[in-house]
Amino acid sequence: MKYVLRTEGASSRGAQATLPSPRGPVSEAVIEAIRARSADNRARIAIPEDLDPWGDDGQLSMTVCQELYYRGWADAGRDCEWDPTLVEVRVRIEDLFLDAVKHQISPFAGDTTADAALGALARTVPTGASDQLARHGTDDEFVDYFAARSIYHLKEADPHAWAIPRLRGASKAAFVAVEFDEYGAGRGERVHQELFGDLLASMELDDRYLGYLDVAPAAVLAPVNLMSCLGLRRSLRGATIGSMPHSSTPGTRVTP
Fold it and tell me: What angle do CA 174, 248, 199 make, to 5 degrees?
Protein backbone atom coordinates (compact mmCIF):
# COMPACT_ATOMS: atom_id res chain seq x y z
CA MET A 1 0.00 0.00 0.00
CA LYS A 2 1.79 3.10 -1.20
CA TYR A 3 0.08 6.35 -0.34
CA VAL A 4 2.97 8.63 0.62
CA LEU A 5 3.77 11.92 -1.06
CA ARG A 6 7.15 13.45 -0.49
CA THR A 7 7.31 17.06 0.57
CA GLU A 8 9.07 20.00 -1.00
CA GLY A 9 10.45 23.05 0.73
CA ALA A 10 10.49 23.92 4.41
CA SER A 11 8.01 22.33 6.80
CA SER A 12 5.85 24.04 9.40
CA ARG A 13 5.99 21.29 12.00
CA GLY A 14 4.50 23.34 14.81
CA ALA A 15 1.44 24.59 12.93
CA GLN A 16 -2.11 23.39 13.50
CA ALA A 17 -3.41 20.96 10.91
CA THR A 18 -6.32 21.83 8.65
CA LEU A 19 -9.47 19.74 8.56
CA PRO A 20 -9.27 16.68 6.27
CA SER A 21 -11.61 15.71 3.47
CA PRO A 22 -14.67 13.75 4.71
CA ARG A 23 -15.04 10.03 4.05
CA GLY A 24 -18.77 9.66 4.52
CA PRO A 25 -21.90 11.39 5.82
CA VAL A 26 -20.91 11.40 9.48
CA SER A 27 -17.42 12.81 9.02
CA GLU A 28 -18.84 15.34 6.55
CA ALA A 29 -21.37 16.55 9.14
CA VAL A 30 -18.71 16.69 11.86
CA ILE A 31 -16.30 18.68 9.70
CA GLU A 32 -19.06 21.10 8.67
CA ALA A 33 -19.99 21.58 12.35
CA ILE A 34 -16.39 22.45 13.25
CA ARG A 35 -16.05 24.86 10.33
CA ALA A 36 -19.30 26.66 11.24
CA ARG A 37 -18.87 30.18 12.63
CA SER A 38 -21.76 29.71 15.03
CA ALA A 39 -23.34 26.76 16.79
CA ASP A 40 -26.75 28.44 16.94
CA ASN A 41 -29.62 26.19 15.85
CA ARG A 42 -27.23 23.37 14.96
CA ALA A 43 -29.10 20.13 14.39
CA ARG A 44 -28.08 16.88 16.05
CA ILE A 45 -25.67 14.85 13.91
CA ALA A 46 -27.26 11.54 12.98
CA ILE A 47 -25.24 8.38 13.61
CA PRO A 48 -26.50 5.54 11.37
CA GLU A 49 -27.32 2.32 13.20
CA ASP A 50 -25.11 0.42 10.78
CA LEU A 51 -22.08 2.71 11.13
CA ASP A 52 -18.97 0.53 10.94
CA PRO A 53 -16.82 1.46 13.97
CA TRP A 54 -13.75 0.17 12.11
CA GLY A 55 -14.59 1.96 8.85
CA ASP A 56 -13.18 5.16 7.37
CA ASP A 57 -16.20 7.35 8.13
CA GLY A 58 -16.41 6.42 11.81
CA GLN A 59 -12.66 6.45 12.41
CA LEU A 60 -12.15 9.82 10.73
CA SER A 61 -15.10 11.27 12.66
CA MET A 62 -13.45 10.20 15.93
CA THR A 63 -10.09 11.62 14.88
CA VAL A 64 -11.60 14.97 13.92
CA CYS A 65 -13.55 15.24 17.19
CA GLN A 66 -10.71 14.05 19.41
CA GLU A 67 -8.23 16.44 17.82
CA LEU A 68 -10.22 19.29 19.39
CA TYR A 69 -8.62 18.19 22.71
CA TYR A 70 -5.09 18.23 21.27
CA ARG A 71 -3.94 21.08 19.00
CA GLY A 72 -7.30 21.78 17.38
CA TRP A 73 -7.91 22.71 13.74
CA ALA A 74 -6.50 25.77 12.02
CA ASP A 75 -9.69 26.25 9.99
CA ALA A 76 -12.21 25.70 12.81
CA GLY A 77 -14.88 28.39 12.70
CA ARG A 78 -14.89 28.95 16.47
CA ASP A 79 -13.78 27.48 19.77
CA CYS A 80 -15.86 24.29 19.63
CA GLU A 81 -13.93 21.99 21.96
CA TRP A 82 -16.96 21.67 24.25
CA ASP A 83 -19.72 22.08 21.67
CA PRO A 84 -22.51 19.77 22.96
CA THR A 85 -23.27 18.45 19.47
CA LEU A 86 -19.65 17.47 18.85
CA VAL A 87 -19.18 16.04 22.33
CA GLU A 88 -22.29 13.90 21.84
CA VAL A 89 -21.22 12.54 18.46
CA ARG A 90 -17.70 11.81 19.74
CA VAL A 91 -18.97 9.88 22.75
CA ARG A 92 -21.53 7.92 20.75
CA ILE A 93 -19.00 6.81 18.14
CA GLU A 94 -16.38 6.08 20.80
CA ASP A 95 -18.91 3.88 22.63
CA LEU A 96 -19.51 1.91 19.42
CA PHE A 97 -15.77 1.62 18.86
CA LEU A 98 -14.96 0.53 22.42
CA ASP A 99 -17.68 -2.13 22.25
CA ALA A 100 -16.16 -3.40 19.00
CA VAL A 101 -12.70 -3.49 20.60
CA LYS A 102 -14.02 -5.47 23.59
CA HIS A 103 -15.44 -8.07 21.21
CA GLN A 104 -11.93 -8.55 19.79
CA ILE A 105 -10.31 -9.20 23.17
CA SER A 106 -10.16 -12.65 24.75
CA PRO A 107 -10.38 -12.67 28.57
CA PHE A 108 -7.54 -14.16 30.58
CA ALA A 109 -7.99 -17.86 31.25
CA GLY A 110 -7.74 -19.30 34.74
CA ASP A 111 -5.12 -17.68 36.95
CA THR A 112 -3.32 -15.81 34.16
CA THR A 113 -2.24 -12.31 35.19
CA ALA A 114 -1.39 -9.26 33.13
CA ASP A 115 2.27 -9.60 34.17
CA ALA A 116 2.37 -13.22 32.95
CA ALA A 117 0.69 -12.35 29.66
CA LEU A 118 3.12 -9.48 29.00
CA GLY A 119 6.05 -11.71 29.91
CA ALA A 120 4.91 -14.32 27.41
CA LEU A 121 4.62 -11.68 24.72
CA ALA A 122 8.15 -10.46 25.49
CA ARG A 123 9.48 -14.00 24.99
CA THR A 124 7.63 -14.53 21.71
CA VAL A 125 9.67 -14.41 18.51
CA PRO A 126 8.90 -11.02 16.88
CA THR A 127 6.43 -11.26 14.02
CA GLY A 128 5.22 -7.66 13.75
CA ALA A 129 5.71 -4.99 11.14
CA SER A 130 9.04 -3.79 12.53
CA ASP A 131 10.49 -7.30 12.40
CA GLN A 132 9.20 -7.80 8.86
CA LEU A 133 10.74 -4.49 7.78
CA ALA A 134 14.04 -5.27 9.48
CA ARG A 135 14.29 -8.58 7.64
CA HIS A 136 12.70 -7.90 4.29
CA GLY A 137 11.61 -4.26 4.08
CA THR A 138 12.02 -2.25 0.89
CA ASP A 139 12.62 1.48 0.76
CA ASP A 140 9.01 2.10 -0.27
CA GLU A 141 7.71 -0.05 2.59
CA PHE A 142 9.79 1.87 5.11
CA VAL A 143 8.48 5.15 3.72
CA ASP A 144 4.86 3.99 3.95
CA TYR A 145 5.36 2.65 7.45
CA PHE A 146 6.92 5.85 8.76
CA ALA A 147 4.18 7.95 7.18
CA ALA A 148 1.48 5.75 8.74
CA ARG A 149 3.14 5.80 12.16
CA SER A 150 3.43 9.60 12.04
CA ILE A 151 -0.27 9.92 12.88
CA TYR A 152 0.58 8.72 16.39
CA HIS A 153 4.26 9.45 16.84
CA LEU A 154 3.92 13.18 16.20
CA LYS A 155 1.64 13.24 19.27
CA GLU A 156 3.45 10.45 21.12
CA ALA A 157 2.61 10.20 24.84
CA ASP A 158 0.00 13.00 24.66
CA PRO A 159 -3.04 10.66 24.97
CA HIS A 160 -1.52 9.14 28.09
CA ALA A 161 -0.85 12.46 29.81
CA TRP A 162 -4.55 12.65 30.71
CA ALA A 163 -3.95 9.83 33.20
CA ILE A 164 -1.57 11.88 35.36
CA PRO A 165 -4.18 13.75 37.47
CA ARG A 166 -6.09 10.48 37.87
CA LEU A 167 -3.26 8.78 39.75
CA ARG A 168 -1.69 9.39 43.13
CA GLY A 169 1.41 8.67 45.17
CA ALA A 170 3.93 6.14 43.89
CA SER A 171 1.79 5.31 40.84
CA LYS A 172 1.71 8.94 39.75
CA ALA A 173 5.44 9.38 40.37
CA ALA A 174 6.34 6.27 38.36
CA PHE A 175 4.07 7.19 35.48
CA VAL A 176 5.36 10.75 35.30
CA ALA A 177 8.91 9.35 35.20
CA VAL A 178 7.98 7.44 32.04
CA GLU A 179 6.31 10.51 30.54
CA PHE A 180 9.36 12.62 31.45
CA ASP A 181 11.47 10.44 29.17
CA GLU A 182 8.87 10.60 26.40
CA TYR A 183 9.01 14.40 26.57
CA GLY A 184 12.77 14.57 26.28
CA ALA A 185 13.70 14.77 29.98
CA GLY A 186 13.46 18.55 29.82
CA ARG A 187 15.25 18.98 26.49
CA GLY A 188 13.05 20.07 23.59
CA GLU A 189 15.19 18.51 20.90
CA ARG A 190 14.87 15.11 22.60
CA VAL A 191 11.08 15.05 22.81
CA HIS A 192 10.11 11.82 21.06
CA GLN A 193 7.63 13.65 18.86
CA GLU A 194 10.44 15.88 17.61
CA LEU A 195 12.77 12.94 17.06
CA PHE A 196 10.19 11.24 14.88
CA GLY A 197 9.70 14.48 12.98
CA ASP A 198 13.46 14.59 12.41
CA LEU A 199 13.28 11.05 11.04
CA LEU A 200 10.56 12.04 8.58
CA ALA A 201 12.46 15.14 7.49
CA SER A 202 15.64 13.12 6.97
CA MET A 203 13.73 10.94 4.51
CA GLU A 204 12.19 13.97 2.77
CA LEU A 205 8.76 13.06 4.09
CA ASP A 206 6.07 15.38 5.40
CA ASP A 207 6.97 16.06 9.03
CA ARG A 208 3.96 18.27 9.75
CA TYR A 209 1.59 17.26 12.53
CA LEU A 210 -1.14 15.08 10.94
CA GLY A 211 0.52 15.71 7.59
CA TYR A 212 -0.65 12.34 6.27
CA LEU A 213 -4.14 12.33 7.79
CA ASP A 214 -5.91 12.69 4.44
CA VAL A 215 -4.31 9.52 3.10
CA ALA A 216 -4.11 7.43 6.30
CA PRO A 217 -6.60 4.52 6.17
CA ALA A 218 -8.93 3.55 9.00
CA ALA A 219 -6.52 0.83 10.15
CA VAL A 220 -3.92 3.53 10.85
CA LEU A 221 -6.36 5.81 12.66
CA ALA A 222 -7.90 3.10 14.86
CA PRO A 223 -5.03 2.52 17.35
CA VAL A 224 -4.50 6.26 17.79
CA ASN A 225 -8.21 6.80 18.31
CA LEU A 226 -8.24 3.99 20.85
CA MET A 227 -5.48 5.65 22.88
CA SER A 228 -7.44 8.91 22.81
CA CYS A 229 -10.65 7.11 23.85
CA LEU A 230 -8.86 5.58 26.82
CA GLY A 231 -7.12 8.79 27.84
CA LEU A 232 -10.30 10.85 27.74
CA ARG A 233 -12.11 8.49 30.14
CA ARG A 234 -11.13 8.38 33.81
CA SER A 235 -12.76 4.97 34.22
CA LEU A 236 -10.30 3.53 31.68
CA ARG A 237 -7.14 4.98 33.26
CA GLY A 238 -5.74 1.48 33.80
CA ALA A 239 -5.98 0.75 30.08
CA THR A 240 -4.46 4.17 29.35
CA ILE A 241 -1.42 3.26 31.41
CA GLY A 242 -1.25 -0.20 29.85
CA SER A 243 -1.05 1.28 26.36
CA MET A 244 1.77 3.64 27.32
CA PRO A 245 4.98 3.11 25.29
CA HIS A 246 7.75 1.78 27.53
CA SER A 247 5.30 1.46 30.45
CA SER A 248 6.99 -1.85 31.29
CA THR A 249 10.40 -0.22 31.80
CA PRO A 250 12.09 -1.91 34.81
CA GLY A 251 11.53 -0.02 38.02
CA THR A 252 8.54 1.98 36.77
CA ARG A 253 5.60 -0.25 37.56
CA VAL A 254 2.39 1.75 37.68
CA THR A 255 -0.82 0.54 39.31
CA PRO A 256 -3.90 2.75 38.89
Answer: 100
N-term to C-term CA, the chain: 39
Positive or negative torsion for Cα 187, 192, 194, 199 = positive
Q: What is the DSSP string of the chain?
A: --------S---TTSPBPPPPP-SHHHHHHHHHHH-S--TTPPPPP--TT--TTSHHHHHHHHHHHGGGTT-BTT-SS--TT-HHHHHHHHHHHHHHHHHHHHTPPPPPTT--HHHHHHHHHHSPP-SHHHHHHHH--HHHHHHHHHHHHHHHTTTTHHHHTTGGG--HHHHHHHHHHHHHHTGGG-GGG-HHHHHHHHHHHTT---STTTTGGG--HHHHHHHHHHHHHHT-GGGHHHHHHTSTTTT-TT-----
CA-CA-CA-CA dihedral for 126, 130, 134, 140, to nearest 10: 150
Q: pTM for the full model?
A: 0.86
Q: Please, what's the largest Cα pairwise distance for the chain? A: 57
| CA separation for the pair 121, 139 (Å, rounded) | 28
> pLDDT by residue (tens digit) across 218-235?
999 999 999 999 999 999
C-alpha to C-alpha distance for 249 and 95, rounded to whole angstroms: 31
pLDDT for 132 equals 84
